[in-house]
Design goal:
Length: about 190
């Protein structure tokens, strides 16, 4: 959809203007807000992601999940089959850099998990609207994934406030998240 394409470009351009200091301090605020949530503290099996370019940093979050004795699952995207699968990660140093430059699990050493066993999803996104709809990178990977899971599963988007928009171009298959965390706090939908 052309409208989505244009909005991705607009928001990503805005995001590149964050200074290193702003990126770091806002990411820290977002991590603090996220880790205060009861649903995060109560979940044992948590899916997260590894930040790419100047996305909200998930490094402290992923380390916290591991050090809290919870299980951390990270996504691997297969462009050929157009699927995203999650693997259990116990050591962040074991991730490998994909062709796109994203740090991903290694299927030859990491164990795959049935997404139905995951209790909470921490999700990336380019833009978010006031109703919990999200605009991703355009692969439909999260839309597919969430469509196959119960709507009540907590799905927490992480974003800088500059990624929040009043209007998103939506299509029937776009899935909503349940919470959005920005540097200003948590919004529940
Ligand atoms: N549940 C679904 N079943 C079939 N096709 C789907 C489904 N969800 C999304 N798609 C396909 O995915 C493509 C990309 O969708 P969209 O532009 O909304 O991606 P996105 O939300 O930005 O990406 P992502 O979900 O990876 O963050 C669409 O062209 C659509 O055909
Ligand atoms: Mg979508």
């Amino acid at each position: 959809m052309e409208l989505k394409k244009a909005l991705r470009k607009e928001v990503l351009t805005k995001r590149t203007h964050l200074s290193e200091y702003e990126w770091k301090s806002k990411s820290e605020s977002i991590a603090n807000e996220l880790l205060k949530l009861d649903i995060v503290n109560q979940a044992k099996n948590i899916a997260s992601f590894v930040d790419f370019r100047n996305e909200v940093s998930t490094d402290a979050i992923n380390r916290w999940i591991l050090s809290s004795g919870k299980s951390l699952f990270l996504p691997l995207i297969d462009m050929k089959s157009r699927t995203m699968t999650f693997y259990k990660i116990m050591d962040l140093n074991e991730l490998v850099r994909s062709n796109y430059g994203i740090m991903e699990p290694n299927p030859s050493i990491h164990e795959i998990i049935d997404p139905h066993r995951i209790e909470l999803f921490i999700t990336p996104g380019i833009a978010f609207d006031p109703n919990g709809y999200r605009l991703g990178y355009g692969g439909g990977f999260y839309d597919h994934l969430f469509a196959g899971l119960g709507i009540e599963i907590p799905k927490i988007g992480l974003a800088f406030d500059l990624q929040c928009v009043t209007d998103l171009p939506l299509e029937p298959f776009d899935m909503r998240i349940t919470h959005l965390v920005t540097e200003y706090g948590v919004k529940k939908f």
